[in-house]
Write a structure and sequence with these properties.
With about 350 residues, the protein is an alpha+beta fold. It has 13 helices and 11 strands.
Length: about 350
Amino acid sequence: MEELTPRQETILRLVVREYVRSASPVGSRALVEAYELPVSSATVRNDLARLEALGYLSHPHTSAGRVPTLEGYRYFVGRLVGDVALPLRERTTIAHQFYQARRDLEQWMPLAASVLSQTARLPAVVTVPQAVEPHYKHLQLISTHGHTVLLVLVAHGGIVKQQMLNLVEPVDQEALGKASDRLNQLCAGLAADEIETRADGLPSLESDVARLVAGILRDAEAGMSGTIYRDGLTAVLQQPEFSEGEKAHGLMRIVEERSLLKGVLADALGPEVGLVRVLIGGEGRWDELRACSLVLARYGVSEYATGALGVVGPTRMSYGRAISAVRFVAGVLSDLVYDSYAG
């Protein structure tokens, strides 16, 4: 990127801010009056012309004002947006919402998508955290009536599964409790294959339960893979950028098409947890995203389980707020993953 002078950086920052606010081209007189700049309109006009010559602004034919280009947005995000934090009140509210859902993975994901969309005021996407394999945490066998027993399995990551068992012979609760205790001691922290290996040397009831648990863990892993939660698409389609059907279609594709979104996430995000990545205008790799920007991050605990989350919207977005919202929600989810998998 071509280096800018401090004043040119200020002008570019203000043009981006005003254009994000108004969706209208920004002129020199409007900048001087709105921000009480200590220079003349002519000086600002010269800086705008220089920024246009460098490719950071463009000049719509029907207006005397300028609008940011994709390169202008990239310079702004890379060098001018700064380290913006959400207000304390918002952070406290978000943390409290997740605290209430902390023990239920199935609540985290829709809550994260909803909170992130509302906070960033953009469509949000969240993927389920993926462990290398689900691991056994705790089991309880509960006698109901006759030959029927309720199996409650808790796996690391907040996964809770229940299943009714029909036994050949009735077993009282004391015996079921002892069987549960032995399996909890023997299988704690194990994956499905390891549990099946240990099932061979167990008494009949415990062996059958262990094999069933191994199957439940495999089903849980298969059922969670690829799940993506979304929220907030409708409102952003009202933005002027998406009045054209082709641009709106590109936005809908990235939010709704799982294969495209998963491909973008896989290419854009490395293994680092918490690092925010901003993709502007498809970065020359995804033509359908030329009218869009994405703010993405990976969350979780690297050695246990990670997922991805982010927001998508027009290139004319409030990048500071989007980045701070993605970073904060990713941090909250990382804490939840740590508590569930490593805690």
